[in-house]
Amino acid sequence: MKVTKAVIPAAGLGTRVLPATKAMPKEMLTIVDKPAIQYIVEEAVNSGITDILIITNRGKGIIEDHFDRAPELEDRLLATGKTDVYDEIVSISKLANIFFIRQKETKGLGHAVSCSRSFVNNEPFAVLYGDDVIIGDDPACGQLIRAYEKYGKSAVGIKPVPEDQIYKYSSLKVEPLEGNLFNCTDMVEKPKTKDQVLSLYSILGRCVLTPDIFDILDNTPPGAGGEIQLTDAMCTMARNVGITGVDYTGKRYDMGDKLGTLQATVEIALRNPKLGGPFKEYLKNITKTLLD
Ligand code: UTP
Q1: DSSP state of 28
Q2: Which of 13, 115, 190, 234 to mutate to test the pocket of ligand 1 (most atoms within 8 A of CB)?
Q3: How is the chain split into domains, by residue range?
Q4: What value, to the nearest 5°, has the Cα angle with vertex 53 and ends 52 and 59?
Q5: Pick the CATH number of 5-256 from 1.10.1660.10, 3.60.20.10, 3.40.190.10, 3.90.550.10
Q6: Disulfide engineering: 139 pairs with which of 41, 46, 188, 243, CB 3.0-4.6 Å?
Q7: Do the strands 51-56 and 5-9 form a parallel or antiparallel pair, or are they unpaired?
Q8: pLDDT, tens digit, for every residue of 66-107?
Q9: Is any atom of ligand 1 closer than 6 Å to the C-beta of 13?
């Protein structure tokens, strides 16, 4: 079945990027000239997704506003002849059919995904983590959709992480399939000891799930941090039927982490057609002052 639906969980508390996220969702943190979540929606759309459910919670209304029309602003832009910006602003509201639902309690990523059950309606669907921006010529979500279509199993985006960092992430048991694809048969969320580390491959930012994940989530008890972990449910699936791991091409930026937001700003600004040139000159000059 074709994957046309995507879920973007954006209801986390963003405690690692406080105080920026005290009143503003981390998904709305700006990278150059767009909020992080717009890059994510664009990636989904470029992967063939037509319907997107964004999971929000209290205080995240500005995400809805961003994907809505803005008549007063649009009128002003037209009246002042700023047609390029007008076109860009209007196009944001036409990217896809975007729906919203609230996760009423912040009980974890797994719990957030289970809020999408009636939207998904028994179809395979993509999950794009709301604080992971991935930039690349071939959209990461689309790479996972192709792996799902080829093997008929759920697919997860994976990347190797440094050995001393694996304890903050998930760790997967993988065996090579072909190219950048792996068969994943086991996983553990935030391993506590070296013995629990299955490999340095971790799930980062994206997955395509078959709808049987919802029954599994319903039977998944709270795990690491007392939250219902999506990884724990995917672990059950991996052990039962296997999951395809895709070491996707593209660079991932963690917008839930202060250093990640800085890296995103610098690298995405350098790629910007208008700002890239002058920004590179600025960086060259400023780095001269950093040499010891
Ligand atoms: P994180 O674990 O990074 O989000 O979840 P967090 O809770 O905001 O992180 P801290 O507080 O800085 O440690 C990954 C994605 O899942 C969403 C987040 O919004 C983020 O996009 N999420 C997480 C939910 O939608 N609901 C939750 O209950 C937890």
Answers
A1: G
A2: 13
A3: 5-256
A4: 130
A5: 3.90.550.10
A6: 46
A7: parallel
A8: 999 999 999 999 999 999 999 999 999 999 999 999 999 999
A9: yes
